[in-house]
Fold:
Amino acid sequence: MQFSAIIVAVACATGAVANLHFKAWCVSGCLSDADPKNVGATKSACNAYKNRHTCDQWWDVCPGCVIETKDGNNKASQCHSSSQHIGGDEWQAYCIKFGATDGAAN
Structure:
Protein backbone atom coordinates (compact mmCIF):
# COMPACT_ATOMS: atom_id res chain seq x y z
CA MET A 1 0.00 0.00 0.00
CA GLN A 2 2.80 2.43 0.83
CA PHE A 3 4.55 1.55 -2.42
CA SER A 4 1.52 2.50 -4.54
CA ALA A 5 1.21 5.79 -2.65
CA ILE A 6 4.84 6.56 -3.48
CA ILE A 7 4.25 5.80 -7.16
CA VAL A 8 1.25 8.15 -7.24
CA ALA A 9 3.24 10.91 -5.51
CA VAL A 10 6.13 10.57 -7.96
CA ALA A 11 3.77 10.59 -10.94
CA CYS A 12 2.08 13.75 -9.68
CA ALA A 13 5.39 15.47 -9.03
CA THR A 14 6.63 14.58 -12.50
CA GLY A 15 3.51 16.01 -14.11
CA ALA A 16 3.92 19.28 -12.25
CA VAL A 17 7.21 20.08 -13.97
CA ALA A 18 6.44 18.66 -17.40
CA ASN A 19 5.11 21.94 -18.81
CA LEU A 20 8.21 24.16 -18.48
CA HIS A 21 9.76 25.95 -21.42
CA PHE A 22 12.88 27.76 -22.60
CA LYS A 23 11.08 30.08 -25.05
CA ALA A 24 7.60 31.59 -25.14
CA TRP A 25 5.66 34.20 -27.08
CA CYS A 26 2.16 35.66 -27.20
CA VAL A 27 -0.13 35.30 -30.20
CA SER A 28 -3.20 37.04 -31.51
CA GLY A 29 -5.44 35.32 -33.98
CA CYS A 30 -4.54 31.78 -34.95
CA LEU A 31 -1.35 29.78 -34.57
CA SER A 32 -0.38 29.84 -38.24
CA ASP A 33 2.84 30.77 -40.00
CA ALA A 34 1.39 34.13 -41.08
CA ASP A 35 3.11 36.06 -38.25
CA PRO A 36 0.61 35.57 -35.42
CA LYS A 37 2.98 36.93 -32.76
CA ASN A 38 1.79 39.76 -30.57
CA VAL A 39 5.12 41.48 -29.88
CA GLY A 40 3.75 44.06 -27.44
CA ALA A 41 2.05 41.42 -25.30
CA THR A 42 5.16 39.20 -25.50
CA LYS A 43 7.41 41.96 -24.18
CA SER A 44 4.97 42.90 -21.41
CA ALA A 45 4.42 39.27 -20.41
CA CYS A 46 8.16 38.57 -20.36
CA ASN A 47 8.81 41.59 -18.15
CA ALA A 48 5.97 40.60 -15.81
CA TYR A 49 7.24 37.01 -15.64
CA LYS A 50 10.77 38.25 -14.88
CA ASN A 51 9.45 40.32 -11.96
CA ARG A 52 7.20 37.52 -10.69
CA HIS A 53 7.86 36.04 -7.24
CA THR A 54 4.65 34.21 -6.38
CA CYS A 55 5.87 31.19 -4.45
CA ASP A 56 8.76 28.75 -4.23
CA GLN A 57 8.17 26.55 -7.28
CA TRP A 58 10.56 26.61 -10.26
CA TRP A 59 7.99 28.33 -12.52
CA ASP A 60 7.13 30.98 -9.90
CA VAL A 61 10.26 32.99 -10.67
CA CYS A 62 12.22 33.72 -13.83
CA PRO A 63 15.22 35.85 -12.92
CA GLY A 64 16.82 35.19 -16.30
CA CYS A 65 13.81 35.90 -18.53
CA VAL A 66 14.85 38.19 -21.38
CA ILE A 67 13.37 39.26 -24.69
CA GLU A 68 15.36 38.00 -27.63
CA THR A 69 14.94 38.71 -31.31
CA LYS A 70 16.03 36.71 -34.31
CA ASP A 71 18.41 38.63 -36.57
CA GLY A 72 17.20 41.95 -35.17
CA ASN A 73 13.65 41.29 -36.36
CA ASN A 74 11.32 42.60 -33.64
CA LYS A 75 8.42 40.59 -35.10
CA ALA A 76 10.35 37.47 -34.10
CA SER A 77 10.55 38.53 -30.44
CA GLN A 78 10.18 35.86 -27.80
CA CYS A 79 10.78 35.51 -24.09
CA HIS A 80 13.79 33.32 -23.33
CA SER A 81 14.70 31.53 -20.10
CA SER A 82 18.02 29.70 -20.29
CA SER A 83 17.08 27.83 -17.10
CA GLN A 84 13.64 26.69 -18.36
CA HIS A 85 11.60 28.67 -15.82
CA ILE A 86 8.60 29.50 -18.05
CA GLY A 87 5.44 27.63 -17.10
CA GLY A 88 2.95 27.21 -19.94
CA ASP A 89 -0.22 27.97 -17.96
CA GLU A 90 1.35 30.96 -16.23
CA TRP A 91 2.68 32.29 -19.54
CA GLN A 92 -0.71 31.96 -21.21
CA ALA A 93 -2.35 33.92 -18.38
CA TYR A 94 0.16 36.77 -18.78
CA CYS A 95 -0.34 36.87 -22.56
CA ILE A 96 -4.10 37.16 -22.17
CA LYS A 97 -3.67 39.80 -19.45
CA PHE A 98 -1.64 41.92 -21.88
CA GLY A 99 -4.07 41.67 -24.79
CA ALA A 100 -3.09 38.55 -26.72
CA THR A 101 -5.52 35.76 -27.46
CA ASP A 102 -3.16 32.97 -26.38
CA GLY A 103 0.36 32.05 -25.37
CA ALA A 104 2.71 29.62 -27.11
CA ALA A 105 5.96 28.04 -25.97
CA ASN A 106 8.60 25.46 -26.75
Summary: Residues 20-105 form a domain with the Alpha-Beta Plaits fold (CATH 3.30.70). The chain has one domain: 20-105.
